[in-house]
Specification:
By secondary structure, the protein is an alpha/beta fold. Helices cover 39% and strands 20% of the residues. Strands 14-15-16-13-12-18-19 form a 7-stranded mixed sheet, sandwiched between helices. A 6-stranded mixed sheet has the order 9-8-7-10-11-21, sandwiched between helices. A 3-stranded antiparallel sheet has the order 5-6-22. The longest helix has 22 residues.
């Protein structure tokens, strides 16, 4: 039976739905012969219209009262919740993410926009006494946060809804206009959310969601009309963007090769269970996916036996099946790249305990041991369902090995030794230390970001709003107190 062609989804340009002469077909990673849908790349003229509109709309958004910004964000949150099943299925079709994980992502985005509303309503300032010396007598300081200006945002394919929400929600909360470039691999999710944004009544021109070519995206990065660039993606791309961004503020969330330490005192069953989730959720295509496991020598054999057995039991296959735990990678090229890294590790002396061979865009759960730290599966970001295990005898050495990395996003530490918890918090060179859970843990109101090559700045609604605003100080002098008037 012939498949009926579906009309391409229009793009959201400054409050208008438009088409372009540059079509963009969206692949289905699980079924390459069945496209997930189609839309358009914005033209240069459409990009220019969006930026011009964002600059003009900022004069409106910067003056929106808190209750109005909060109302818009709550209505977007409610609209996403109402279309939960539709959005979850769309994420799965576009990205290959298992449907149960896609639905969790929709739920998280619902929370992200609701949290944005709360942050819009508590952008408070501070009263600062300035009379710390005699010459400053009779003066006080008052601070207030002001929206920074139009925001350029670029979001990644692995969380096409919630990581875009972490740019859109704080921009609206702060009073900024925004032009968002969604990922070309799965833009339909945010274009569908744009329907909800439009219905919520954002000011005309305040939001544009435009798939773009790489060349046009590069122009957006350097465009001086934007006052902040927020990018989530690969380190190599992100740091080059910072070089081209000019004087605008830059926030980068760039991923890593996250480590997990399993100490001798750890709850072994819990550590195995959570490490399986951290390593293989969404085929490892998560910035904080467990990639390197450091396990105390006294429990190494027991942990590895349970971990490999658990990996063998993972349900792989059709991501639309609610039972599926491991679906495809985003495309066949990434699966082949991962297989190449595994073969390199083997050539350097590493051993594959399970997995290691691609099947189209699917890559099985893969566990390696005896791998030198210089191999790409250790030193670079795998972004795949792949983990490398190491033994350690001394907790100090485990911390040293985790820190032996260009990256520093988050680390998980399974331990029931309080001293080791504090030591990890003090010495690990990362943005977040997660005790008794995997580095893959994140909830959307916490500060999230990394150090070293893992990025610059923090996401999480409160911290994103701070980045999207400028702190301004007003000093008030009280003349009667500064220089008392002589009495008559």
């Amino acid at each position: 039976m012939a498949v009926t062609a579906v009309k391409p989804h229009p793009i959201f340009l400054a409050g208008r739905w438009v088409e372009s002469p540059d079509p963009l077909e969206i692949a289905n990673p699980a079924r390459p012969d069945e496209p997930a849908g189609s839309t358009y790349h914005a033209t240069r003229e459409q990009y220019e219209e969006a930026v011009t509109a964002a600059v003009a709309a900022f004069e409106v958004t910067r003056r929106l009262p808190a209750y109005e910004r909060g109302r818009i964000l709550r209505e977007i949150s409610a609209g996403i919740r109402e279309r939960r099943e539709e959005l979850g299925r769309l994420i799965t079709l576009e990205s290959g993410k298992p449907i149960r994980d896609s639905l969790v992502e929709v739920d998280r985005a619902t929370l992200t926009f609701r949290l944005g509303a709360e942050e819009a309503e508590r952008m408070t300032g501070e009263l600062i006494p300035l009379d710390l010396m005699a010459s400053s007598k009779g003066r006080i300081g008052i601070t207030r946060r002001f929206a920074i200006g139009p925001v350029a945002a670029i979001s990644p394919f692995n969380f096409p809804l919630n990581l875009a929400a972490h740019k859109l929600a704080p921009a609206i909360a702060a009073g900024c206009s925004i032009v968002l470039k969604p990922p070309s691999k799965d833009p339909l999710t945010m274009l569908t959310v744009a329907e909800i944004v439009e219905k919520a009544g954002v000011p005309q021109g305040a939001v544009s969601i435009l798939p773009m070519s790489r060349a046009l995206g590069d122009e957006m990065v350097a465009d001086e009309r934007f006052k902040l660039l927020s990018f989530t993606g690969s380190p190599s791309v992100g740091w080059r963007m910072k070089e081209r961004a000019g004087k605008k503020k830059v926030v980068l969330e760039l991923g890593g090769n996250a480590g997990v330490i399993v100490d001798e005192s750890a709850d072994l069953d819990w550590a195995v269970k959570r490490s399986l989730v951290g390593a293989f959720s969404y085929a490892g295509q998560v910035c904080i996916s467990v990639q390197r496991m450091f396990i105390h020598a006294r429990i190494y054999d027991s942990f590895m036996e349970r971990f490999v057995a658990g990996a063998r039991e993972l349900v792989t296959g059709d991501p639309l099946n609610p039972e599926t735990q491991l679906g495809p990678m985003v495309d066949e090229a990434q699966a082949q790249r991962t297989q190449g890294w595994v073969r390199e590790a083997e050539a350097l002396g590493g051993r594959v305990l399970i997995g290691g061979t691609a099947d189209g865009s699917f890559f099985p759960p893969t566990v390696l041991v005896d791998t030198p730290p210089t191999a790409q599966v250790c030193s670079n970001e795998a972004f795949a369902p792949l983990v490398v295990a190491f033994k350690f005898d001394d907790f100090d050495d485990a911390i040293r090995q985790v820190n032996d990395s260009f990256y520093g996003l988050q680390t998980g530490v399974f331990t029931n030794d309080l001293q080791h918890s504090w030591q990890a918090f003090d010495q690990l060179e990362v943005g977040g230390v997660i005790v008794n859970d995997v580095p893959t843990y994140r909830i959307d109101h916490m500060p999230y970001g990394g150090v070293k090559d893992s990025g610059l700045g923090r996401e999480g609604l409160r911290w994103s709003v701070e980045d999207m605003t400028e702190l301004r100080l007003m000093v008030v002098a009280e003349p009667d107190k500064v220089a008392p008037r002589p009495s008559n």
